Amino acid sequence: MWKGRFQTETSNLVQRYGESISYDWRLYAHDIEGSIAHAAALQDAGIITKTEERKIGKGLREIKKEIESGDFRFRMSLEDIHMNIESALTDKIGDAGAKLHTARSRNDQVALDVRLYCRAETEAIFQRVMLMQRALLKLAKQFPEAVVPGYTHLQRGQPVLFSHHLLAYVEMLERDRMRLADCFKRINIMPLGSGALAGSTILLNRRLVAEKLGFPSVSQNSMDAVSDRDFIAELMFVISMIGIHLSRLSEDVILWASAEFGFIELSDAHTTGSSLMPQKKNPDVAELTRGKTGRLVGNLMSLLTTIKGLPMTYNRDLQEDKEPLFDSIDTIKIALEVFAEMMAVAKIREDRTREATSDPFLLATDLADYLVLKGVPFRQAHEVIGRITAYSIEQKKDFGDFDLSEYQQFSEVFEKDVFAVLSVETALKSRKAIGAPSPTNVKRQMGYWEKRLSTKSTLLK
User: Fold this and answer.
1) Claim to verify: residue 282 and residue 396 sit in the same structural domain
2) Catalytically active residues, by annotation
């Protein structure tokens, strides 16, 4: 493609080092879509005839079919997807194919292809996040009365409904969906027509191209348009956050599935065994997801490191954006799919959750609140219940086993109604504030999410 300037063929080693066709072939559909729209702009400007435009469109669609059927031969010597398709088109239709690259560069061409790709994949991830939310909601609805300890520092704190715990992840994933929607706006800008860096003296109707490709706006600075990879970094950040949320859920699932907790039972279809220990049932999906999140974060760091020191405008370093992007997208899509499938058929072991929430210390805060409602300053109440807890441990007696006189040793404020506080059901019902885990609140939230997640939602309009 640059033989007019060069006298010597590119070394085979340089070709191998610089090729991207081994991975950017996956942009073929977007490259063809962009070229068909570009041909329309060339015809509109009088650069090619209507007949040539039709030949280009027909040839490109045939090439797409050949790629999808496996009959197309990609050539490393042509470096990338753009030149492989252009060369095949010229071989197929002659001079009309050689006119297609008029008024564009591979710089704005790849910027367009990657935006089209990211636009489609952002929608695909968006839908899979919803799928994951629905799976968590389904599990929450199946076990609406299951109660578990809520933890801080991985130490038992207060009782909560298991469904409330699961809905916390639904909330996290909803933020991820909103981030995807916001990121989508900055992806959805049409860069074609920016040329190598300064546009072209051949004036094309960029708005026509944008309209044909479904972009609501066009880029306003040619130098920025060909060098901008912010939208990729932003998408990879959102993917990393989704991965981090799945990783946090993975850690919970791994703990819940252990013999020590035993709160959840995963299906045989979503666990593996041991080659040595026949009794084992391992939560591999959760462990793999926790591990793969490191790759997602690493891919983001790789791209940020690549672009941090680049001068304007296009530099070949930017070829390094695609492999981490492709890997992150592939990884998060399958992670969301398999995790959703696993959680949708998981079972909560209510016998074990009930056993865990029988821990009387889970109600220590409720006892402090009882004193506060009797007029005791909170710091004083906190100290009183702390001393009662120490006494309970020393005497090896639960809060419910004390008589009233024992309570009154620590505060004369205690009355007979203190024993009504010592119930998990009472503790949950009392937590009525917005966002708190009372059964009424959680039921209302499950209804809200069921309605929200049953509504068809899409970024592509």
Assistant:
1) no
2) 153, 274
